[in-house]
Amino acid sequence: MGGEGDRGRRWLNMFVPARNFAVYQGIRYSVLSGDADSLEVGDVETEEPLGTVLIQDLAEWYTLVPTVTFLGHEFQLWRDDGRTCSLTFIGGDGKWAARTWAEADKFPDVVFSRLDMFTFNADVPREMVEERREERRDSLGLWWRQRQDDERRGQYPRSGVLVEFDGITFHDATPAADDKVFLVHPGAESPGDPRFSRSEGCWEAEIPLAECTAACSVKSLATYSGYECQVTSIVEGMATLYYLGHNGGEAEAAGFDQIDRGTWAKLVPAWELRRYREEWQDLLLDVWRRREFARPEETGDQ
After folding, report:
1. Is residue 86 part of a domain?
2. Residue 77 in contact with residue 65, Cβ under 8 Å?
3. How many structural domains are present in the chain?
4. What b-and-e string marks burial along 256-283, b requiring 16 or more CB atoms within 10 Å of the CB?
5. In a domain, 174, yes or no
């Protein structure tokens, strides 16, 4: 019987990849790979490597994304095994998608899945898919906007726990027991609260969350080739992703490397990400809920 690698290769053969092209000195090339500043290009027909070009010297750089029509709306096609097509909704009418996914029993031959508020996927019988085509998306414009915005992007992606206490914003705070949070303040000067004690190169304190002005956990997310991923870093235009799905064969076929049991990672150009966003959770609200709805034996009240 085949192993995980065999399943991954079968998935790879079913992929319907987006195609990248670049125009350099009046000639169109196929984009084979790239980094933050350059692309490896090849022959359009054979994809034989021909060399490397700087992105800033390109006249055009674009992606042809395979799309189809399903139930009268536009979807990106990312897998086709001859019988079933795997789709991601890109039509823009979120209310229609939410209503349709909620009424999935009307379409017994379709497997609907919803990753989050905005990401709607479906495995659809091929005969229900219409108008297969390619949508052109500008990659060069995205690259220039990212380059012009590098200084601001240096603050991203944000992740971890952010806390505001006594007028100071603390990054990389650490949740502690009993609804407290461990804060670290760099520098020689104390933040002022007497609970802070001097440590090597910083001041440290454990503070009740209820005393904080704000406390939130934040996670940066993005969609990459139809997959939901966590963005852990963006350095010089290259993003490190963690695959958030549960199919190891799927992750391997998409080029993710297994770095730990159940953990798959991949380094990709940031311009390949779609729907970059942040997911926030209000920790103070969680504290309030636990306090207000605790059982009497949990609070010590009789």
Report:
1. yes
2. no
3. 2
4. beeeeeeebbbebbbbbbbebeeeeeeb
5. yes
Q: What pLDDT shows up at residue 2?
A: 47
Assigned token pair, 253: 């076929």
End position of a domain, from candidates 179, 199, 215: 215
Q: Are both 3 and 121 inside the same structural domain?
A: yes
Query: What's the CA gap between 286 and 201, in Å, rounded?
Result: 32
Looking at the DSSP bridge assignments, the partners of residue 84 are 125
Same-domain status, 186 and 45: no
Q: Are 171 and 55 contained in the same domain?
A: no
Residue 178 to residue 208: CA distance in whole angstroms: 8
CA distance 219 to 162: 11
| Predicted pLDDT at 140 | 86
Same-domain status, 48 and 77: yes
Looking up tokens 């709607």 gives 120
pTM here? 0.47
Distance separating alpha carbons of residues 278 and 173, to the nearest angstrom:
17
Sites in the chain below the pLDDT cut of 50: 1-2, 4-13, 151-154
Q: How many residues does the chain have?
A: 302
Domain-terminating residue out of 199, 215, 231? 215
Q: Which domain holds residue 140?
A: 1-148
